[in-house]
Amino acid sequence: MKTYERIIQLFLFLCALIAVLGVILITFFIVKEGWPVIQKVGFFNFILGKQWAPTQQIYGIYPMILGSVYATVGALILGVPIGVGCAVFLAEIAKPRIANIIRPGIELLAGIPSVVYGLYGLVVIVPFIRKVFHNQGFSILAGSIILAIMILPTIINISESAIRSVPRDYKEASLALGGSHWQAIYKVIVPAARSGIMSGIILGMGRAIGETMAIIMITGNSTLMPESILSPIRTLTGNIGIEMGYASGEHQQALFATGVILFIFIMILNVVANLMPKRVGE
Amino acid sequence: MKSKRVLAVVMVLVLAVAAFTACARPTEDNQNGTAQGGEKQNITINGSTSVQPLVEELAKAFKSKKPNVTIDVQGGGSGVGIKSANDGVVDIGMSSRELKAEEKGLKEFKIAIDGISVIVNPANGVTNLTLEQIKKIYIGEITDWSQIGGAAGKITVVTREEGSGTRGAFIELTGVEMKEGDKKIDKTTATAITQGSTGAVMTTVASDPNGIGYASFGAAAENTAIKMISVENVQTSAENIYAGTYKISRPFLMLTKEEPVGAVKEFIDFILSAEGQEVVSKHYLKANK
């Protein structure tokens, strides 16, 4: 039936169209709402301004950009070694019986809502940091620890499948040359899987930079320039999330403008992730 | 068989189209409803942006009972509300402060009282602060509890996000908001921990022995994990707020030029009724005990 096929094709095309249309509409709307403020303040004044006082029409999001970057970098420093280590263990070392216990655990980790992570951070991590360092507890460190846990599943899953897709010959050749299993892992297998591992890390980075709820609850949201790893910070997402409720007029537009900058960040990350060679060994 | 499948696909498409068009329908019905429901009446209101959300909520409750009345609520600030009511450009002006002597002459209706508690951790030995001390803590001039009679410890200042009505009232009533020229500047220290809700502020203070925060009286009074402190030696209590001796509180007023009539009177009567005051008590203290 030709018409039947056509209808189905049209229907599927519409589905595809709606997804793309969604992206276009959201982009258009965010930029349309945010642009007037960026234009009024000036792009560089906006992203390099150090003071955020929306009720006085002062819009500078440099502290928030730093906040997002620091929290994300911190999360990667903590999360990448653990995540890649876990992926190597699952793919190369763990017996199936053990892997079958660990893997569902990681899937569960991915399924925990971010507000629960936030709550955990607020009642466990923040008081812990407060106790150890005798400060307010809300800090880059607290945010990075929680983000590191949140991005683990992404990094582990993608890294593990990258490691698994390294051809067996590589490992066997390495062993045949007299190398130990560990030497095969760190000299041959992990380097061969590095592009896949990098994709995992970049996707994890995207998740970290876009995280909102958990980060609002544990980073303190101060608009101060961060001075150390123990300083409270406000991230770009946190800035939008915390102030949207009561913002109106130009203040609201400034939050959309924050969204525009965040959007640019995420887009750069996605482009970089797409540029990563997909095949092993390249 | 295949024709059945075609039928199924067509049905799905028809349903989808129906679902989309259905979204547009309720508004049409509403318009018909108001057209039939008697004479259309319009109330215009402007003034304090602190009172605005409450009045909007009250307007919604009122409209569900009187659908033929449309209520247009705008901001502008207390000054604008008072002036607009006086000039007769709006039916009702809103103010979140008492009228000054030269502004008297309007009909005043107190619809709610906004009281803000200053809260600390229960482990904190400090039980009383002056307005001056609270202000200095929030602008960052007092940074350690030992400076104001407590055990040594760096004060963790907890505040609400900019734009929050509670923050607006707090900085206004404690003097954290200062006049520079004809502009009012919020001087809250940039090191302050900012939380997006009353609950988050209270949780933060409850878990940090050196924390200080503020929350609406209604919410703080019910929370036993934090301690409300006295301000200027006046305990934070509903009695003291109603008596006017507790300093960090303010009335929410509705102002009309003449004795209200018609829909305006109905709306104000509704707000002051038990039902309207029930809406008020969700976030604020009722106008009267």
Mean pLDDT of chain B: 85
**So, CATH architecture of the largest domain in chain A?**
Orthogonal Bundle
Low-confidence stretches of chain B: 22-37
Q: Tell me the count of domains of chain B.
A: 2
Proportion of strand residues of chain A: under 5%
Tell me what the structure shows.
The complex is a heterodimer of chains A (282) and B (289). Chain A is mainly α and 282 residues long. Chain A folds into two domains: 2-47; 62-275, MetI-like (MetI-like fold). Chain A has helices at residues 2-41, 43-48, 62-93, 96-111, 114-133, 140-164, 168-176, 181-192, 194-210, 213-218, 236-243, 249-275, and strands at residues 52-53, 58-59. In chain A, strands 1-2 form a two-stranded antiparallel ribbon. Chain B has 289 residues and is an alpha/beta fold. Chain B has two domains: 34-113 and 251-286, Periplasmic binding protein-like II (D-Maltodextrin-Binding Protein, domain 2, 3-Layer(aba) Sandwich), CATH 3.40.190; 115-250, Periplasmic binding protein-like II (D-Maltodextrin-Binding Protein, domain 2, 3-Layer(aba) Sandwich), CATH 3.40.190. Chain B contains ten helices and 14 strands. Chain B is globular and about 75 Å long. The N and C termini of chain B lie far apart (74 Å). The A-B interface holds A 1, 3-4, 7-8, 11, 53-56, 122-123, 126-127, 130, 134-138, 216-217, 220-224, 232, 234, 241-243, 245-248, 251 and B 2, 5-6, 9-10, 13, 75, 154, 156, 161-165, 183, 185-186, 190-196, 200, 203-204, 207-208, 210-211.
